[in-house]
# Entry
Amino acid sequence: MPAAASISTETTGVILAGGASSRFGSNKALALLQGSHVIQHAATVLTKLFPQLLLVTNSPDSYRFLDWRMTGDIYADSGPLAGIHAALRTITTPQAFIVGCDMPNLDIRLIAYLCNLAGDWDAALPWLDAGPEPLYAVYRKSCLPVIERQLQARQRKISLALEQLRLRKVSQQEVLGITRDLMTFHNINRMGDLQLLLENEPGRD
# Structure
């Protein structure tokens, strides 16, 4: 597999932090896990991989502590697809690795694998047996026309955009050859998801 450093000039590391966290009950990105904010876990991994970093958020004051470049949605109230759009409009690299703020178990090897995939595709993403992981994926700027048209039509579903893009689907078998399990995709939507990770902190019985 190519060294992680080889992705640095071609890819920007992006975190989306625009969700309402309605199921969690408060801002899940700022919940504490192992002594750090949940978002900090993802930020630490991406900082190791990419010299160019971007946070997409409509609440920049909440994330000043990251010291990242920030941008906001261009299309308001349009969900994660608007975040992907804003990222691709902002970055100066040909592509971006885009991840949600609520995924604290990012795997450096899998991210490097996704970023270095060859081929004529618009987006590369894990396509697991349970379905795709569109917020753990690489998007090229060639995605913009499709996403722009969809947002102008007030269609917010990422799945609809994926249907119109050239995809490099990374199978579950491919993923497991790198990660050995699927815990890297564990995200935090409810308080119980955070509690599950807290119970598995090192040093706990």
Observations:
- The chain has a mean pLDDT of 87.
